[in-house]
């Protein structure tokens, strides 16, 4: 018997082949162990069970993902040009608060026109107001510093979210002397109930204030695309109105039915938006409540006056100014020096040579000329839209300069006007008293019916012409009557 051996590599199956002469048989001998995977010996039933478990886990994962994306009760979601935001549904309307409409004005963007917002992925929470802009309350050198520079946020209240509704839009510009407050001031901003009751969309926003929003300095012209300085807060307002035009349809509003309205310095802002070529076409109507239309400072005058601010900062270049802490910027404001930035005396009658310094200036960019010059001379590319102008009744009573103003008599009022206005001329007090005489009947013979800022006044006896201005009761005299509080 011949035997042939075939060699193969190790750990590989090999065969011994034995050939018999008489009967050719092939005998196979296995000389190694086989390792078989357990999966190969599982029954079909086990395999099926494993597959069912995998499918169940996948279904559970899908369900959890769905639940995570489902809005909780009372919430709503809107997608804007800068991402999606999750708001709230309360009192019959939706609210979305704290959405950025411009980039944080920090670093090189401090004292620069607003830049586009920094958009984020995913869904951002819009259920609360964000930071207010830096400010001092009360408006004095020793006031408390509040707010952060990352403050350019916009808020929307709407009764419906479908673009097809095309509801009228009211954009509120808050007041505060261009120094303080915000678009989310309690009792001083729109609410869900207001949107539901009026079936209109309401918008409010923050804008830069005081030195951060209105500091005009020749040094800050460096790098400016318009070669101007100041009026940054107004540029923020224009950026907010552009955001409204681009996004308000997603909140059920009609961009062609936008009305802007504001009170006090918010009314002044309305005047600015009316006259600014940069705001043309961003709204269809405007309402001013107790705003000012007096823009009596040129850019050059404001830049010269504000050198005192620059001196107090200790800076000699823009980069130094942009590195200053918020508190240092606010402390450097000339609160009481002439021209004063403090507004604590803004409700008082003026004294000759003592005025609050200008914040809004005619810079040739945001404002090409004072409002009446724009209208009378048809100068500039202004908004020719319906414009309601009014004065808020008894506005000065919000923060009266006189402690017992409600009990003034005509004599107190006459003395007050005469004491203040005679610094301009001897005849001005009598001219003013003629313009604002007393005509209302007094409920009693002892008190005046209304405040000094809201004539007509009631005389205690006789007619105004028969009464002589009372000199008693002056501050520190210890006598009854008028007490003037500084």
TrEMBL record:
UniProt entry keywords in alphabetical sequence: Hydrolase, Membrane, Transmembrane, Transmembrane helix
Enzyme class: hydrolase
Domain Carboxylesterase type B: from-to ranges: 76-399
Coiled coil segments of this chain: none
GO MF annotation: an example: hydrolase activity
Region of interest called Disordered, as start-end residue ranges on this chain: 444-486
EC number(s) given by UniProt: 3.1.1.-
Keyword DNA damage part of the UniProt annotation: no
PROSITE patterns tied to this protein: CARBOXYLESTERASE_B_1, CARBOXYLESTERASE_B_2
Transmembrane regions listed in the UniProt entry: 46-66
Pfam families: COesterase (PF00135)
Family recorded in the similarity comment: Belongs to the type-B carboxylesterase/lipase family.
Protein name: Carboxylic ester hydrolase
Highest classification ranks of the organism: Eukaryota, Metazoa, Chordata, Craniata, Vertebrata
């Amino acid at each position: 018997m011949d035997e042939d051996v075939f060699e193969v590599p190790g750990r590989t199956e090999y065969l011994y082949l034995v050939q018999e002469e008489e009967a050719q048989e092939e005998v196979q001998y296995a000389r190694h162990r086989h390792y078989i995977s357990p999966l190969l010996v599982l029954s079909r039933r086990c395999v099926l069970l494993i597959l069912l478990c995998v499918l169940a886990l996948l279904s559970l994962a899908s369900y959890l993902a769905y639940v995570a994306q489902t809005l909780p009760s009372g919430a709503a979601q809107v997608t804007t040009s800068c991402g999606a935001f999750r708001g709230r549904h309360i009192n019959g309307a939706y609210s979305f608060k704290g959405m950025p409409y411009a980039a944080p004005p920090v670093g090189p963007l401090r004292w620069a026109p607003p830049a586009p917002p920094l958009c984020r992925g995913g869904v951002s929470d819009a259920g609360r107001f964000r930071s207010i802009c830096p400010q001092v309350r009360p408006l004095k050198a020793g006031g408390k510093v509040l707010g952060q520079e990352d403050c350019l946020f916009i808020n929307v209240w709407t009764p419906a979210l479908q673009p097809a509704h095309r509801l009228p839009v009211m954009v509120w510009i808050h007041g505060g002397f261009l120094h303080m407050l915000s678009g989310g001031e309690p009792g001083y901003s729109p609410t869900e109930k207001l949107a539901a009751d009026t079936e209109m969309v309401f918008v409010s926003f923050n804008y830069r204030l005081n030195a951060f929003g209105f500091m005009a300095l020749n040094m800050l012209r460096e790098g400016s695309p318009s070669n101007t300085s100041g009026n940054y807060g107004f540029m923020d307002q224009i950026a907010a109105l552009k955001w409204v035009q681009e996004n308000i349809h997603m909140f059920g509003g009609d961009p062609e039915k936008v009305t802007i309205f504001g009170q006090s310095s918010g009314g002044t802002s309305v005047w600015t938006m009316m006259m600014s070529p940069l705001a043309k076409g961003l709204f269809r109507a405007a309402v001013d409540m107790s705003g000012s239309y007096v823009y009596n400072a040129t850019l050059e005058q404001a830049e010269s006056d504000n050198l005192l601010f620059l001196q107090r900062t200790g800076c000699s270049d823009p980069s130094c100014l942009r590195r200053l802490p918020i508190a240092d910027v606010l402390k450097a404001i000339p609160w009481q020096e002439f021209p004063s930035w403090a507004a604590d005396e803004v409700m008082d009658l003026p004294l000759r040579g003592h005025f609050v310094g200008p914040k809004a200036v005619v810079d040739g960019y945001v404002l090409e000329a004072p409002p009446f010059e724009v209208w009378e001379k048809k100068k500039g590319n202004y908004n020719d839209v319906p414009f309601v102008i009014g004065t808020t009744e008894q506005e000065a009573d919000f923060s009266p300069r006189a402690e017992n103003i409600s009990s003034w008599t005509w004599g107190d009022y006459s003395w007050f006007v005469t004491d203040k206005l005679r610094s301009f001329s001897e005849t001005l007090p009598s001219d003013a008293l003629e313009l604002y005489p007393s005509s209302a009947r007094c409920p009693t013979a002892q008190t005046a019916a209304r405040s000094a800022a809201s004539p007509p006044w009631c005389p205690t006896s006789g007619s105004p012409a028969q009464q002589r201005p009372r000199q008693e009761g002056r501050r520190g005299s210890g006598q009854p009557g008028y007490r003037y509080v500084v």
